[in-house]
Design brief:
elongated; five-stranded mixed β-sheet; about 230 residues; about 45% helix; alpha+beta; Cytidine Deaminase, domain 2; DNA polymerase, domain 1; single chain
């Protein structure tokens, strides 16, 4: 504390950081500074800059911090269960916001929002997930479901189960999405073979596969864009 005052040394820093956010927004802030703003509420009586910087050093970015598993977050000194839950709430809020930009809208006319939602939902997961976006005849989103969760580099996919679920939902088109925990979204030969199999099985039942999107920390890949389907 400074001489002659009970105010902690970091109080002025907090005020300045909040003021900068009010005037310039998140774009003017480094990832660790935005993380500090979140931690201010979770840890009200401590200098959180070292904690924020250590979280970024450990996980890589703001998005990777809030998407990290709770048990890994609590390995960082100063991050207890309550703080880890608060960080995960930020991730959940961001995902809910991204999904709101997609749900009820014509998916093919909101492609950037679809990509942002898929990346928010899956890009920083530590295991592969296989997700299906089920669309109606107007290409509006009916349902968004994780079909399978696999290992760090493999997820089993069952084409007939995808088609069966589409028929249950009266869906006439689907978009397949999965993540590469390695960060590199480049499709593998196995990804290409599986995609062709799903396309063929779905086509026989009158269901269109609009795309297969792979997301990772380093971006995304579209099978349609790559002319692989």
């Amino acid at each position: 504390m400074s001489a002659g005052t009970d105010e902690p040394h970091y109080a002025g820093h907090r005020d300045r950081l909040r003021e900068r956010f009010r005037h310039s927004g998140a774009e003017a802030m480094a990832d660790y500074e935005l993380l500090e703003l979140v931690l201010f509420r979770s840890i009200p009586r401590r200098d959180v800059k070292p904690i924020a910087k250590e979280l970024i050093r450990r996980f890589g970015s703001f998005a990777q911090v809030v998407s990290a598993p709770q048990q890994l977050l609590t390995e960082v000194p100063g991050v207890g269960d309550a703080v880890a839950v608060d960080l995960r709430i930020v991730a959940a809020a961001g995902l809910r916001l991204a999904k709101g930009q997609v749900k009820g809208r014509t998916v093919l006319g909101s492609w950037n929002a679809v990509i942002e939602y898929c990346r928010a939902a899956m890009a920083f997961e530590t295991r592969e997930q296989f997700r299906i976006l089920f669309l109606d005849k107007k290409n509006a989103l009916i349902a968004d479901e994780v079909q399978q969760v696999g290992t760090v580099d493999h997820t089993p996919v069952y084409p007939r189960e995808i088609v069966r679920r589409a028929l249950e939902l009266s869906s006439t088109a689907v978009i397949m999405v999965h993540n590469h925990p390695s960060g590199d979204p480049t499709p593998s030969d196995a990804d290409a073979r599986m995609t062709r199999e799903v396309v063929n099985v779905a086509k026989a039942m009158g269901i269109v596969v609009h795309d297969h999107i792979i997301v990772g920390r380093d971006g995304h890949a579209s099978f349609r864009g790559l002319k692989l389907i």
